[in-house]
Amino acid sequence: xxxxxxxxxxxxxxxxxxxxxxxxxxxxxxxxxxxxxxxxxxxxxxxxxxxxxxxxxxxxxxxxxxxxxxxxxxxxxxxxxxxxxxxxxxxxxxxxxxxxxxxxxxxxxxxxxxxxxxxxxxxxxxxxxxxxxxxxxxxxxxxxxxxxxxxxxxxxxxxxxxxxxxxxxxxxxxxxxxxxxxxxxxxxxxxxxxxxxxxxxxxxxxxxxxxxxxxxxxxxxxxxxxxxxxxxxxxxxxxxx
Amino acid sequence: xxxxxxxxxxxxxxxxxxxxxxxxxxxxxxxxxxxxxxxxxxxxxxxxxxxxxxxxxxxxxxxxxxxxxxxxxxxxxxxxxxxxxxxxxxxxxxxxxxxxxxxxxxxxxxxxxxxxxxxxxxxxxxxxxxxxxxxxxxxxxxxxxxxxxxxxxxxxxxxxxxxxxxxxxxxxxxxxxxxxxxxxxxxxxxxxxxxxxxxxxxxxxxxxxxxxxxxxxxxxxxxxxxxxxxxxxxxxxxxxxxxxxxxxxxxxxxxxxxxxxxxxxxxxxxxxxxxxxxxxxxxxxxxxxxxxxxxxxxxxxxxxxxxxxxxxxxxxxxxxxxxxxxxxxxxxxxxxxxxxxxxxxxxxxxxxxxxxx
Lengths: 241, 357
Fold this sequence. Notes:
Helices cover 36% and strands 24% of the residues of chain A. Chain A has 241 residues and is an alpha/beta fold. Chain A is globular, with a radius of gyration of 18 Å. The termini of chain A are far apart. Chain B is built from 13 helices and 4 strands. Chain B has a 4-stranded mixed sheet, with helices on both faces. With 357 residues, chain B is an alpha/beta fold. The A-B interface holds A 52, 55-59, 73, 76-79, 81, 83, 85-87, 89-94, 98, 101-103, 105-108, 110, 132, 148, 158 and B 2, 4-5, 7-9, 11-12, 15-20, 189-191, 193-200, 356-357.
């Protein structure tokens, strides 16, 4: 299941419109295997659209997109992508265990108890496995949602604003998990509009109006823009366009 | 097509409703409640023997005939003069006033007549009582009354006629509604997005939905059948397996139509608004209330397009007339329902494609 090339995800000139509204306006980026790549930009900049393209849910109208050496759909069918949606998409009337069993079965893991335990240990929710999801707090649901994306040990993990509405303590924990996962060889694409979170990524793509303005580590970008922090760098790079 | 994934989806649906007590209540208690009402309103209507007054002052013929006629179980008979009887009839105290005129060999029956449904049952009861009376007396050259009933009989009520179509109606209505709302929830809560970003195929998802909801539909059919047969004592002749087969092919269409409708609705309120559009034409045109052959000519092609038309016909002939599965009419109905179900299922698969991918 290893990534054969030195690129986990590559996009070139990617375009996608919703009616007359352009969501991606010729997006280019490259994500290396095993890195945490942060897609940083304001609401409506095209982050979710791009992630949904990588998850095989949207077909770009122009440009090329390679995911783990093939098409996005192939990577999804092979069970190599884990996708954590923006809102914790779970079945509220089922228990944590039942939810995870279901998602595991979809990934071709009919006997999944060990995997479920492993994923729940990762998000520190093993003791709540029999709780009905509707009775959990928002933060716990987000953690279950992450566990569901990890069950099948994907090569590429897509996290769409995973820490929105998550308290600072849990956010800290999440990033610890992400770092652990990345060091185990999983490539992570995470979107965010929170600047201080972005500095935890290995590399960043600053995205605005469906176009990547600049790519590089947080310190690179700050240095390139000649500013004091990432936020000012974002503004400077956006204005330079 | 991976059976494990299909089974996972079906199991997910069944497990989900296990904790949704309101929906389960809707599924099982509502049909029982409605059937009880139908039973109370129509079930005993024809079992009540009408009050029949024999006008003794106009009666001609052997006196034994009156005795035998009045003794019949089909009526509550009593004697009176014509004027008294006429008065009772007008006051609503009697249902019919009768006398036999031997010279002309005519049985005169006067009924109130404002309610056609009651009138029919009174006429039948008087005929039965007279036939019984005449039969015991032998060769009286009386009025020739021939009553032919192929199916049903004295205890056959409107409920017996309605029960088969109500089974189809409830299955279609509840399963359509539940599948539409369930799938709409998949769309609005984002779980559909998660499913589509997994190896699960659209066909597997629809098949899983069909399997999960068929489970509830068959369970519902069992509850309705048990209730109508044992509590309401509906007459029932058909093979249980044949009833379930008709039910299962009907449910394929109901679930798939629910999935299709969920694609056209943005929220649960909008989904519910499809209920009258999908259901009311079927109430009026599928033979549920009005037999299809009594519909105006221009409505019949419309009736032929509705799945409940075929389910009603099949369930009626199976339950009331005891037709077997191999009967050409039953097979044709099942075939049409299956075709409808498959077309709707294909539409459902296509409707999922349009949204994602």
